[in-house]
Specification:
By secondary structure, the protein is of the alpha/beta class. It is 41% helix and 15% strand.
């Protein structure tokens, strides 16, 4: 079996299921486990992604005016790799290569089309369903159930402890800085499991736009900034767009030192096995007196 993964979360799922030896190609964003960086890259963005959050947002909007996708599939590379299974997604055209991109490429490339599994993780349960779908396509269903049992057990242990401390702090999770956007999809569920009351965004729905005035009116107890596609260093660099706002210092979370920045790219915005670690980090941010996991994907912003 030859597998090409065109989304980073799928690559992590595939490796967790013990299928890493079958991977023959990856997307430009697949970077974990570390060894997958050696695999042939099959995609690239159509614009420079090293700019600020405002610049990236402008380029995304501009690209989508002229094209249905912000990514390019290397068709010659796919032809060379001859995969039996391609894993992509149909959840967000901005986050990763879409099912449409893959279908268009396959019509031109393969007389006998490989099997395609398109993930669509809107909620936490959808992530687990996607794990099962990949496992079923590869014939390793029992491995999937063992993995899911382990992940759910860890998350249940966190949730039980996190929700036994009385008052639930009000938590605002920020997915993009300029323009400001709150987190949606599975993040409201993770906030609830971590012992918090989610302020913005709804489970199973895409990330909603957010005005700074709304953030001020809500005045949450905890703010966690986790831009999609940004690691800790880039998130730290972008924080000046928030801290420069004249009302920033008046926010309750800022005054009480309860603003956190997180590696949204590797953890919170990547719907795969490391959502378990994401929950643990979120629980520590919401109640640092109760948890000390010591993960490196989040830090207090002072």
């Amino acid at each position: 079996m030859r597998i090409v993964s065109l989304i980073s979360s799928a690559t992590e799922i595939i490796c967790s299921l013990g299928l890493g030896d079958f991977l023959v190609g990856r997307s430009h964003e697949c970077d974990y486990p570390e060894w997958v960086r050696c695999l042939p890259v099959c995609t690239e963005p159509k614009f420079d992604v090293t700019g600020s959050s405002r610049e990236i947002d402008r380029l995304v909007r501009q690209t989508l005016q002229d094209s249905a996708s912000v990514y390019r599939v290397f068709e010659d590379r796919l032809r060379e790799l001859q995969p039996d299974l391609i894993v992509t997604q149909s959840q967000c055209d901005v986050c990763a290569v879409s099912l449409r991109d893959v279908e268009q490429a396959m019509c031109r490339l393969f007389p006998h089309q490989p099997r395609v599994v398109a993930l669509q993780p809107d909620r936490l349960e959808d992530v687990w369903t996607d794990v099962r779908r990949i496992a079923a396509a590869a014939g390793v269903e029992e491995r999937a159930e063992r993995c899911l049992d382990e992940w759910r057990t860890r998350m249940a242990a966190v949730a039980e402890r996190a929700n036994s401390w009385g008052r639930r702090p009000r938590v605002a999770c920020i997915e993009w800085i300029e323009p400001l956007m709150a987190c949606g999809n599975w993040m409201p569920e993770l906030v609830a499991l971590a012992g918090g009351e989610n302020v913005f965004g709804e489970p199973g729905r895409h990330s909603p736009p957010l005005r700074f005035e709304e953030l001020c009116r809500a005045d949450p107890d905890v703010i966690v900034v986790m831009p999609c596609g940004f690691d800790l260093q880039r998130t730290r660099q972008e924080m000046s767009a928030l801290t420069a706002h004249p009302e920033w210092s008046r926010l309750r979370a800022v005054r009480h030192g309860r603003v956190w920045i997180a590696d949204g790219n590797a953890y919170f915005n990547r719907p795969g096995p490391r959502l378990v670690e994401s929950l643990e980090m979120l629980a520590e941010a919401i109640n640092p007196a109760a948890f000390a996991f010591g993960h490196g994907g989040i830090e207090n912003f002072a």
